[in-house]
Amino acid sequence: MTSERLDQRLPAARIDRVPRGILYMIAATVMFAVSSALAKWQVVTYSFAEVLFFRAVVSLVVCAALILPRTGLLVFRTARLRDHLGRSGTQAVAQSLIIIAFSLMPLAGAVAINFASPLFATLFAAIWLKEKVGLARGGALIAGFLGVLLVAAPGADSFRIGALFALGNAVLFGSVTAAVRGMTTTESAETLTMYQMVFLTAFFAVAMPIFGFSWPTGLDLTVMLVNGLFNALGQYWWTRSLSFAPPAAVGPFYYFSLVWAIGLGFLFWGDIPTLALLAGSAIVVGSGLFLLWHESGRKPLPAD
Question: Scanning 10, 24, 188, 238, which has its CA 20 to 30 A from the CA of 258?
Answer without folding.
Answer: 188
